[in-house]
Amino acid sequence: MSIPRFTNPTRRSFLGGAAFGIGALAGFDLSEPAHAATGRVTDTVRLTWGLSGLNLIAKERGEFEKLLARDGIKVEWLGPFPNHAPTLQAVTGGSADFSFGGSTTPALAAIIAGSPLVFTQFVVYEPRTTAIIARDDSGINKVEDLVGKSVAVNRSGLGEFLLVAALEKHKVDRSKMTFVYLNPPDAAPALASGKVDAWSMWSPGVDIARLEYKAHDIFLEGRDLEFQIDYTSYLTTRKFATDNPALVRAVNDAFRAEGKWISANSKDAEYIAQKAGKYSDQVRDQFIALNRQYRYFAANDENFLAELQRAADWLVARKVLPEPIKVTDHLAQL
Questions:
Q1: Residue 238 · residue 117 · CB < 8 Å
Q2: For a FRET experiment, which of 53, 150, 187, 332 has its CA 20 to 30 Å from that of 300?
Q3: Which family does it belong to (predicted)?
């Protein structure tokens, strides 16, 4: 069976896709107030969410909205979205105000494509469990076995960069195998049916797939990658950040408070995530054992930005990103 191929996104196609985002896709103390509600032109913030991650837990738990309500800010949740790129499209197109806290790589790709986005803050969570997996009956047990095979990845995202890094580490020429660009909802059944031979994916999708499709890791980010090139990030438009600096600061603070709660209450957080994600108790218990911890970095953190610039340069050199980008030109001024 032939494998679908896709062209690189242009500025026109990315911005044109913004309308698709919503329509087509059904440590701070919590007692501390957010910043004073000045410097804003709206009292409502439209936030995107997916079926995993911090935004899902913030939406389901409800404390996030209560914290922002102290400043008279109302939250509207839009989603669910399958990954970061469609939330960036929704923000660019005006359907949402913030992306949902996802990969920096598609965010950088969107900015290069012409989207007027700026980073508002960054998150690092540990441990990281993104992996390249193959079914147990595939005969693929190491990265070198991918020669002549196909791997599903999300374009300019965490899945693609991890595959690029794995091939480079094991000295496998990427021309010897096939990249298949699919979003997670399409990649999972493609792996299950054998339309692709492997899948590069993050949690919880990769963890669910290991169990449901009897798959195993052939490259694990936290174990096999010596450096971090992709981070979690929140973005809004430059205009929204300029018009609403106090609101953006308040949203940043609320997300930090949520991250602090999750880090201290990982078991409760994983039960909340499981209810929405509808995965097995076995997967949930694996996540509880990970005890993930969240660390936040402000948009003006010079040390963090130096690491992100290094990551961007690495991605450009390997053609995951199409052209160079200066990260400090795309930060919210708060």
A1: yes
A2: 53
A3: Belongs to the bacterial solute-binding protein SsuA/TauA family.
Q: Read off the tokens for 273.
A: 């995530």
- 329: buried, middle or exposed (CB in 10 Å: 19+, 13-18, 0-12)? exposed
Q: What angle do CA 117, 123, 129 make, to 5 degrees?
A: 115
Q: What local confidence, expressed as pLDDT, does residue 144 receive? A: 98
Identify the three-state secondary structure at position 145. Answer: helix
What token pair was written down for 94? 């005006």
pLDDT in tens, 118-160: 999 999 989 888 999 999 999 999 999 999 999 999 887 789 9
- Listed in sequence order, the residues at least 6 apart from 310 whose beta carbon sits closer than 8 Å to its beta carbon are none
Location of structure tokens 């107030």: 33
Percentage helix, strand, coil for the chain under 3-state DSSP, each rounded to 5: 45, 20, 35
Pairing of strands 178-181, 150-153: parallel
pTM score of the predicted model: 0.81
